[in-house]
Recover the amino acids of this structure.
């Protein structure tokens, strides 16, 4: 098993959108980690793909709007 462990909510949502299954979620007082079973080669490719995707831009707009609503 090649585990990809991340606390990045946006990246985790992107992986789910791309069809990868969440294997486990780990939560402690400070944060939550999402665990996916993805080959190392695919992990590297997906990270670059995510950074260059429109999904990240969309997520950043959601965060900005949420700050406005919460202020």
């Amino acid at each position: 098993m090649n585990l990809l462990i991340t606390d990045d909510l946006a990246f985790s949502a992107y992986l789910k959108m791309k069809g990868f299954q969440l294997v486990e979620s780990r939560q402690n007082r400070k944060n939550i980690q999402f665990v996916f079973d993805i080959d190392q080669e695919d992990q590297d490719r997906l990270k670059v793909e995510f950074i260059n995707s429109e999904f990240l831009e969309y997520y950043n707009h959601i965060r900005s709007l949420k700050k406005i609503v919460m202020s």
About this structure: The chain has a mean pLDDT of 95. Strands lie at 3-6, 22-27, 32-37. The radius of gyration is 13 Å. The first strand starts at residue 3 and ends at 6.
